[in-house]
Specification:
Chains A, B: Keywords: FAD, Flavoprotein. 2 copies of one chain form a homodimer. The first copy, chain A, is built from 16 helices and 21 strands. Chain A has about 475 residues and is an alpha+beta fold. The first copy, chain A, folds into 3 domains: about 5-100 and about 425-445, Uridine Diphospho-n-acetylenolpyruvylglucosamine Reductase, domain 2 (2-Layer Sandwich), CATH 3.30.43.10; about 105-215, Uridine Diphospho-n-acetylenolpyruvylglucosamine Reductase, domain 3; about 220-400, FAD-linked oxidase, cap domain/gating helix (Vanillyl-alcohol Oxidase, Chain A, domain 3, 3-Layer(aba) Sandwich), CATH 3.40.462. In chain A, the strands form 4 sheets. An 8-stranded antiparallel beta sheet of chain A has the order 14-11-13-12-18-19-16-21. The longest helix of chain A is centred in the C-terminal third of the chain and has 14 residues, at about 390-400. Chain A is globular, with a radius of gyration of 22 Å.
Chain lengths: ~475, ~475
C-alpha cells in the first residue's frame, strides 16, 4: 500500500496540476499557525502535488486515480481554516476546488452551488438574483469557500439568529463523491448530512451544495462601548433576545482588545472600553435605537451608515469570530486563542467566572450564538501564550468550571470537537474510503479506535520534519 | 357637553356618511359575541351615524367637527376584534376606515400604508412588489385591516418567530391624528409607539403605518397528530426551538377539538387525537422532516403541498389563534374562551396543571409565541360556558397557579390587559383627546382613576338597552 505518487501524477496530465515546490508548499498550508502548538508540529507539512479539478467528473477521476495508486488526498478550498484541517499530514495529493465555482440554481430561500465558490461571490450572485444571502458565514467571507465553511466550519456571522451549521435546516443537501475503485456520487439530506459536514473531507468529497438563504439587507454595522465588561455581555444578550430586532452579528470584546488590537478603532476608545460589534437590519434600527436609549451604560460610537471616522474601520464582522484572533496576532505574535461554549442557563455566570479568574492572561471575546432556541455565547478567547502546559491548564480550568472547550490546538476532528468519536462519520468513512486515503490523520477513531484522549494525539504517519 | 349629533352630521354631508339604521347597527358591532359576558352587555350598542373618510384630511375634518359638537368618535376597521373595542358604547360617530387602503411605499424590509387596507391585500401588494409579507398577522388575515390589528391586536401568525406587536421593531412608525379643536398630526416611533398601539383608538387615530416585512414564502401548512397531549406540546415547543427551521405558525389543539370542531379535519382524526397545526418555510422542509423522523409519537397527517384529502381544509392558520374559538362556537354555541400567558420557564408545567385540573370543561388551545427570546405558549383555551361566576372562578384558578389572564370578557383596555393603567396611553389621551370623546368607556383610568378591579367595570355612560 505504498503510495505511487509518480503513477498518479502521470495519469492526470490533462488536469490542472501544480508541481512547483513553492506552489505546493503554499497550498499545503492553512491558518494553522494561529496555534503555536500546531505551528510547532505542522509547519513542515507538504503535499507531493496539487490538482485543481474543474468539474465533478474531474474530482471523480482524481479520486479513482489516487485510489488505484494508494495516494492520500487532502481536499481544500481557500485554506482559511485554523486547525490544519486542509493540510496533507501524510503528503500525497492536495485537491484544490478553486475552479468549481458554479452557481447552479437560485430560488426563494435556497441556492445550489459548487463547493469552491467564495462565500462573498456566492452572496453577490444570490443578492443580484433575488436579494438573498447566506444565513451565516465565517468572518473570512471575502476569501473562504462555501465548501470549506461546511467541511471545516461550524457557524459564524448569522449564528446569533440561525444557530450553527449542524442545526437542522441550515444545510439542505450535499452531494458527495466517495474514494473507491469506482467512486460513487451520493446525495445526502437530513440525518445523512452530519456524515460529511464538518468532517474535513475525511470520508467523501462535497461536489454540490444546497443551502438555505435569508433576505439580504444593507446591514447597519455598529460599535457600542461599555465601561463595564458584564454590562457589555448583558447588552449583547438582551439585544439578541429582542424578537422583533433582526440581527446578524453580536460580538463582545473585553477591554483592552479594542484599544490594543483594533488599529482603526483604537483612536475612538479607551484602554478600559469594552466593545460590542453589531450588524442590525436597517428596518430594525428604530427598534435598536429604542433599545439603546434604555441602556445608559452603552454608547453608540460608530455606525457605518453615518460614519464620521476619518479612517473607516471596514466591515464590523471582520473584527469578530476568528478575525479577532488574527488582528491580535498581528499586533502581538504571542497571542493565541481558545474556543469555548458557555451554555444556557449558566452562560453569564461562567463567563464572569473565567474573566475574573484569567483576565488579562485570557481576554474574553464572545460571539452571540443561538443553540436550541436560546441565546448563549461562544467564546473565542484571546490567550497570551506562554507554554503548552499552561495552555492545557487554562483549558482544564474552563472544563472544570463547566465551560466546554473545542480545542483549536489540535488537528483531529475529535479533539477539536467533543473528544468523542462521531460514529456517523466513522461508519461512513468505512464505506466511502476503505483504504483510508482521505485526509489521513484527522480522524482518531479511524487510526486508533482505543485512543484515550489523555494527551494530544500524534498521527504516527505524520511526515517527518526535515 | 351634550353631543350635538345633528350638527355634526349636517357639517359632513360631502363625506361618505351612512345613516340607514341597518348599516349603522352592522357597523356598530364587532366579534364581541364570542363572549357571552359581553354579548349580554353590549348587544344593543349602536352609533348615531357612520362616516368613512377617504383620506387623512377627511379624518381630520371628522375629528374637528365631532370635537366642536362634542360627539364621541369610535374608530373601526373591519370590526373583527373580540372585545367590543370597536363598539360605540356612548353612541355618536363610528369612523370606518375602509376607504383608506393606500400602499404608499415598499422597500427592503418595510412598507408604508394606510390603516384601512386588509392584511390580505397588503400582503398581496408587498409580495407582488418584492416577495415580502408582514411578519405577523391575525387569523382574520382575509378580512381584518392592518390598522385594526395594530390598534386592537397583540400578535398572531408569525409571533412564534417575531414575538408580539409590542416588541421593539415590530412596528416602525405610526402617524396619529389627535381630537382637538384643531387636530394635530404626529409621527410616533420607538418609545412613543405604545401610546397608541393597542389603545383601541382611545387617544388618537392612526392614519399611516410603517411596518417591517419578512420574506414571503409558499409556507407549507401541515397537521401533525399525537396521541398524548403533552407530547403535542413538547413537539411544538421543540420544533420552535430549532433555530435553523423557519416557522410561521405552531398551534396545539387538545383532543377532541379537532374531531369535534374542525369539520374537514374530523374524518382524518380520532376523538383522542391531539393536533398540531404548522406553517414551515419550504426550504426548511428537509429540516422539518428530519425533526419529525425523530419523533415517533408524532404523525404527519396533512400537508397542503401534497394534499390527498378529498376536501381541502383551507389555510391551516384559519384553525389557529381566534379562529379556533370561532370554529368551536359554530358547532357548540355554548363555547367561549380565555386568553392565557404561560410564561418561561414554567410554561409546560402550568399548561399540564391547567389541563389536568380543567379538561374537558376547558380545552387547551395553545399558540407558540416568542417572548424575550424564549419560546412560550399563549393559551386561547376553549371554555364550555355555564355561568359568569364559574368563568370568573376559572380565571382565578389560572391566576392563582401563576398563569396570567388577559380577560377577553371585558371591554376595557385595562381588564383585557394587565389590569393596570398604562400611563403612557393615559397621558397621551389627556393631551390628544381633552374632551374624552375618542372611543369612550374603554379606558378605565380616564373615567375612574381609583377603580379597584375587584369586579367587572361597567361604563356609567353605556347606552341603555331599549
Amino acid at each position: 500500500m505504498k503510495p505511487n505518487v509518480a503513477a498518479a501524477k502521470a495519469a492526470l496530465p490533462h488536469l490542472d496540476l501544480d508541481t512547483s515546490e513553492a506552489a505546493i508548499r503554499a497550498k499545503s498550508r492553512d491558518f494553522f499557525w494561529y496555534s503555536p502548538v500546531l505551528k510547532a508540529r505542522l509547519d513542515h507539512v507538504m503535499a507531493d502535488f496539487v490538482v485543481s479539478p474543474r468539474s465533478e467528473a474531474e474530482v471523480i477521476e482524481v479520486l479513482r486515480t489516487c485510489y488505484a495508486h494508494d495516494v492520500p488526498v487532502t481536499t481544500r478550498g481557500a485554506g482559511t481554516g485554523n486547525y490544519g484541517q486542509a493540510m496533507p499530514l501524510a503528503g500525497g495529493c492536495v485537491m484544490h476546488l478553486r475552479h468549481m465555482t458554479g452557481v447552479k440554481e437560485i430560488g426563494p430561500g435556497r441556492v445550489i452551488c459548487e463547493p469552491g465558490i467564495l462565500l462573498k461571490d456566492l452572496d453577490t450572485a444570490t443578492k443580484a438574483h433575488s436579494g438573498q444571502e447566506l444565513r451565516m458565514f465565517s468572518s473570512t467571507w471575502a476569501t473562504a469557500t462555501i465548501g470549506g465553511f461546511i467541511a471545516g466550519g461550524s457557524g459564524g456571522v448569522g449564528s446569533c439568529t440561525w444557530g450553527s451549521l449542524r442545526d437542522l435546516g441550515n444545510i439542505i443537501r450535499l452531494r458527495v463523491v466517495t474514494m473507491e475503485a469506482e467512486p460513487r456520487v451520493l446525495d445526502f439530506r437530513g440525518e445523512e448530512l452530519p456524515r460529511v459536514s464538518h468532517a474535513y473531507g475525511t470520508n467523501g468529497i462535497i461536489t454540490e451544495i444546497e443551502m438555505p438563504l435569508a433576505p439580504a439587507y444593507d446591514w447597519v454595522e455598529m460599535f457600542v462601548a461599555c465601561d463595564d465588561f458584564m454590562d457589555a455581555v448583558r447588552f449583547a444578550e438582551d439585544l439578541a433576545n429582542q424578537d422583533g430586532i433582526l440581527m446578524k452579528l453580536g460580538t463582545v470584546f473585553e477591554a483592552p482588545i479594542a484599544k490594543d488590537y483594533f488599529q482603526r478603532v483604537a483612536p475612538h476608545v479607551e484602554p478600559d472600553t469594552n466593545l460590542v460589534g453589531l450588524m442590525i437590519a436597517p428596518h430594525s434600527m428604530e427598534g435598536f435605537l429604542t433599545f439603546l436609549g434604555r441602556r445608559s451604560e452603552a454608547r453608540l460610537i460608530y455606525r457605518n451608515d453615518e460614519d464620521d471616522w476619518p479612517r473607516s474601520p471596514g466591515p464590523v464582522f471582520e473584527y469578530g469570530w476568528n478575525h479577532t484572533t488574527l488582528r491580535a496576532l498581528k499586533v502581538d505574535p504571542s497571542i493565541t486563542y481558545l474556543q469555548v461554549r458557555y451554555g444556557f442557563p449558566e452562560h453569564k455566570a461562567l463567563i464572569e467566572k473565567m474573566q475574573t479568574a484569567l483576565s488579562p492572561e485570557v481576554l474574553q471575546h464572545l460571539e452571540v450564538l443561538r443553540e436550541g432556541g436560546r441565546v448563549i455565547f461562544a467564546g473565542l478567547s484571546l490567550v497570551k501564550f506562554t507554554t503548552e502546559e499552561r495552555l492545557d491548564e487554562i483549558v482544564r480550568m474552563h472544563e472544570d468550571a463547566g465551560a466546554m472547550i473545542f480545542n483549536p490546538h489540535r488537528y483531529t476532528l475529535e479533539e477539536g470537537g467533543r473528544q468523542t468519536v462521531d460514529d456517523r462519520q466513522l461508519r461512513f468513512k468505512r464505506e466511502a474510503d476503505p483504504k483510508g486515503l482521505l485526509n489521513p490523520g484527522k480522524m482518531i477513531a479511524w487510526d486508533d479506535p482505543d485512543w484515550s484522549y489523555d494527551r494530544m494525539y500524534a498521527y504516527p504517519k505524520l511526515q517527518a520534519a526535515e
